[in-house]
Amino acid sequence: MTKKELIFLGPPACGKGTQTTKLAQYLNLPHIDTGSLLRAEIASGSENGKIAQSFIDEGHLVPVELVGAIIKNRLSADDCKNGYILDGYPRSLEQAEMLVEINSAIDKNENVDFRAIYFKTDISVLISRIVNRRSCPKCGEIYNLKFKPPVKENTCDKCGSTLTQRKDDNEETAKERFETYFHETAPLIDYYNAKGVLKEINADGSIDEVWQRLLEVV
Length: 218
Prior knowledge:
alpha/beta
């Protein structure tokens, strides 16, 4: 059996989170959101979690080595034996090289299908998605006033809570986030393309349209 290892690349609000969740269910593989993973590690009170929290408390980024150790522990879990879908990691070339080392240590002589899927979309579309994004503070469901509005205005379809907008979901902050992304993360596109494992899809369009494009490359 071939082990399927997928990573998703794309700027903020490109829709990869939504598609990752769907694909994880479709392929019966764990969806590993590195942001949630780090928060869970901290909440668990583990040694790695305590160290990570100490850096965050001081206003510093969690060291690359520590994030790598947390990722490695997660990818070594039993539910990843057939593969995984990794969202939010790697974010830099340094982390990409570290992921190679992690996979090599875990996979050993297994037959592996590794792919990096890049969600390509226009920045103007992304900014529109961000400023129109709303979320449920209770269940975490994400909406967009243009692309995926709630049935009842400003109310979560799932639990009925009042939707909120993140303070940083504005045009000025969005542009800053894109500049950071293209400076730090975009080089990964060239990195994985050179390795022959990059699959690019057009992320403009409805959720269903992007989903069909995604299925064609996985």
